[in-house]
Amino acid sequence: MVGEEQISKAQLRLTDIAEHLESDWIALAQQLGLTPDDISSIRRDYQYVVEQVCYVNCSWCIVCFLLLIIHYYYYYYYYYC
After folding, report:
1. 45: which residues sit within 8 A by CB, 6+ positions away?
2. Which stretches within the chain are classed as H helix?
3. Which CATH number covers residue 52?
């Protein structure tokens, strides 16, 4: 089970990454496939760069998780059905 301390450490690392990226997060967001409109929306909705980077990273993690689930079900049905 994941404890509160582990979650805090993960959040700390994400904010550390965000602080180091600073304005370079826009180039990262573009590489991850975000559109200029998406980036403008994030900049408008989140005042601080750290928040903007965290939002992009969390969004990307959700996409990766969904792709993993799709891959798992495809594998399951291909081999077991």
Report:
1. 55
2. 4-21, 25-31, 36-45, 49-80
3. 1.10.533.10
Rounded Cα gap, residues 34 and 32, in angstroms: 6
Give the range among 11-15, 26-30, 41-45, 73-77 with minimum mean pLDDT. Answer: 11-15
Q: Can you give the residue range of the structural domain that contains 66? A: 8-80
Residue 45: what pLDDT? Answer: 92
Burial group, residue 56, by CB count within 10 angstroms (0-12, 13-18, 19+): buried
Contacts of 6-10 with CB under 8 Å at 24 or more apart are none
Domains in the chain, number: 1
Structure tokens at 63: 């996409």
Average pLDDT over residues 40-54: 87
Task: Share the mean pLDDT of the chain.
Answer: 75
